[in-house]
Amino acid sequence: MKVFGLALGLAAVALPTMASAQGDPARGKTVFARCMACHQTVAGRNGLGPTMAGVVGRKAGTVPGYNYSAALKKSGLVWSPAALDSYLLKPAAKVPGTKMIFPGLPKPEDRANIIAYLTTLK
Length: 122
Fold this sequence. Notes:
By secondary structure, the chain is mainly α. Helix content is about 50%, strand content about 0%. InterPro entries: Cyt_c-like_dom, Cyt_c-like_dom_sf, Cyt_c_1A/1B.
């Protein structure tokens, strides 16, 4: 019985985390407003940062016409949801030497929502 109770307790803790990992694109678009000072969402339009159109699944440092830091070009990252999540938590910690001065998003739900939104950008 104790094992069953422990399993239920662990499931109760894990389920909200698993649900939040899915993210909400509409909420992500709202959170992404913080990023729009530097990043565009239209393919071929770079700002202070590279366009986010098509970012999910793209190799880091490869948007044509954007001058990336050597650190990001050499990072070997591919922008999977997991890589985006760890980068958006603390960009400078994930890729020391990155040009991105944004301090990061500490809330897991904000990161999950932005990643869900970024997934919609083609």
